[in-house]
Design goal:
There is one protein chain. By secondary structure, this protein is α/β, with parallel strands linked by helices. It has 3 domains: 122 residues, Methylthiotransferase, N-terminal domain (Rossmann fold, 3-Layer(aba) Sandwich); 236 residues, Alpha-Beta Horseshoe (pyruvate-formate lyase- activating enzyme); 60 residues, Nucleic acid-binding proteins (OB fold (Dihydrolipoamide Acetyltransferase, E2P)). 34% of the residues lie in helices and 22% in strands. The protein has 14 helices and 19 strands. The strands form 5 sheets. Strands 2-1-3-4-5-6 form a 6-stranded parallel beta sheet, with helices on both faces. Strand 3, helix 2 and strand 4 form a beta-alpha-beta unit. Helix 12 runs parallel beside helix 13. The longest helix has 23 residues. The protein is globular. It binds S-adenosyl-L-homocysteine, iron/sulfur cluster and FE3-S4 cluster. S-adenosyl-L-homocysteine (SAH) binds next to strand 13.
């Protein structure tokens, strides 16, 4: 198996957590002697890292799998792996549905890929979905970018939002130690990475499962403490974190973001609904008033902060008036970006069993109205950048225009400007903004560059 002629391809669905897991699994495969194949059809090992957050995400996986299962009938040497959240949710059932599969592995098993593949080589069909303590990572991820990197800080989620599969498929919260996180960041800094995004499904829960309390009686390791602890890692210029839960987002954390120059002025704080009854049914543990106060506090410390969030349209029982409360909140807060979705009933979640489901037609009508408002509001918010000089970290060339490069402002706005990627990749550049669209900007380099 470790001959260099073996090639692999990974297709990743879903969130940043899955992307980070895929990079670690790719690192393991390369250590085993596999080389990346651009085309899945050229690969001897195909891994789908799957998402089940909504039904359409899950169905996409089955359509991809069908094709490769057929290929396997002609090419029995092909190894087919399903990893991630669909694998965890379906487990053995996936083997019955797609008997050609060699390995079904949940997200907690990502770091064990080598072991699991060795069992496959011994001729077994393997299902790894039992809950495990996530091993500290010893392999080097094969990262997609040489400029920005993900660093996991907490796995899993202990919340029980009534619509959400994540706790079922990602398991209970498991924090990495501050030392492990810092040393991964130091290695990234040495390799030339400039921006780190600290990752967790409920990142504000960081440290609750680690030992130690302060004399004042709070957990010794919180996200706020972690930010102070990793802030001076050499080479790293920007730090981001996601995803935050409004219920746990503290003023102390906001103050740290304002104080620490490397922490970017962007807050991703999902609210899900602007209606208190719906928030209660979702089990979110806050009211829309409390969410508004939180955003006010953020803005009092960081006036120009970019705010983004997630919201769901058509949760069971949602009336037109309740949906309009979401529209009102979106209209009044002025989000820079909002990820929206129509509610999708998920297996193993309480809300899926309720009888007060909203019709598909109504859900999609509400989603459209919400998206329309979001685009209008984001376009207005974008106007504030016109004429301003923004610091942009250059990530890549502009796929659509090779004379331009693309990067992000500290507030996470996608920005394009004329330039040569070989000179600019990984650089922080001062860019004057000349055009502002709803979700992206265009500009010109001004002033000097800095590494
Ligand atoms: N941990 C984060 C996000 C988790 S999933 C949080 O607490 O906000 C990402 C987003 O998917 C959620 O914020 C939610 O808006 C959406 N989502 C989750 N389950 C969903 C479902 N059943 N139907 C529609 N959208 C859903
Ligand atoms: Fe899902 Fe809620 Fe956990 Fe977010 S906090 S991952 S929405 S259960
Ligand atoms: Fe999807 Fe799993 Fe992430 S369900 S959104 S890939 S945690």
């Amino acid at each position: 198996m470790s001959t260099p002629s073996h090639r692999y391809h990974i297709t990743t669905f879903g969130c940043q957590m899955n992307k980070a897991d895929s990079e670690r699994m790719a690192g393991i495969l390369e250590e085993m002697g596999f080389a990346w194949a651009d085309e899945p059809d050229d690969a001897d090992l195909i891994l789908y890292n799957t998402c089940t957050i909504r039904d359409n995400a899950e169905q996409k996986v089955y359509s991809y799998l069908g094709r490769q299962a057929k290929r396997k009938q002609e090419q029995p040497g092909l190894t087919l792996v399903v990893a991630g959240c669909v694998a965890q949710q379906e487990g053995e059932k996936l083997l019955r549905r797609v008997p050609e599969l060699d390995l079904v592995m949940g997200p907690q098993h990502a770091n064990r890929l080598r072991d699991l593949l060795e069992q496959v080589l011994d001729g077994n069909q393997v299902v790894a979905t039992e809950p495990v303590h996530i091993m500290e990572d010893i392999t080097k991820p094969r990262r997609d970018s040489t400029v920005t990197a993900w660093v996991n800080v907490i796995y899993g989620c202990n919340e029980r939002c009534t619509y959400c599969v994540v706790p079922n498929v990602r398991g209970v919260e498991q924090s990495r130690t501050p030392e492990a996180i810092r040393s991964e960041m130091e290695a990234l800094g040495q390799q030339g990475y400039k921006e780190i995004t600290l990752l967790g499904q409920n990142i504000d829960a960081y440290g609750r499962d680690l030992p130690g309390v302060t004399p004042e009686g709070r957990h010794q390791h919180t996200l706020t403490d972690l930010l102070y602890y990793v802030h001076d890692v050499p080479g790293i210029e920007r730090i981001r974190f996601a995803t935050s839960h409004p219920r746990y987002f503290t003023e102390r954390l906001i103050r740290a973001c304002a104080e620490l120059p490397k922490v970017c002025e962007h807050f991703h704080i999902p609210f899900q609904s602007g209606d208190n009854e719906i928030l209660k049914a979702m089990g979110r543990g806050y009211t829309q008033e409390r969410y508004r106060r939180l955003i006010e506090t953020v803005r009092s410390y960081v006036p120009d902060a970019a705010i983004s969030a997630d919201a769901i349209a058509g949760f069971p029982g949602e009336t037109e008036a309740q949906f309009e409360n979401t529209l009102t909140l979106v209209g009044e807060i002025g989000f820079d970006q909002l990820n929206t979705a129509a509610y999708s009933p998920r297996p193993g979640t309480p809300a899926a069993l309720w009888e007060n489901q909203v019709s598909e037609a109504m859900k999609s009508d509400r989603l459209q109205r919400l998206n329309h408002l979001v685009a209008t509001k984001a376009a207005q918010r974008s106007q504030r950048y016109l004429g301003r000089v923004e610091e942009v970290l250059v990530e890549d060339r502009n796929e659509k225009d090779p004379t331009q490069v693309m990067g992000r402002t500290r507030s996470n706005r996608l920005t394009f400007f004329p330039g040569n990627i070989t000179q600019l990749k990984g650089q922080l550049v001062q860019v004057q903004i000349t055009e502002a669209r709803a979700f992206s900007l265009t500009g010109q380099v001004v002033g000097k560059l800095r590494h």
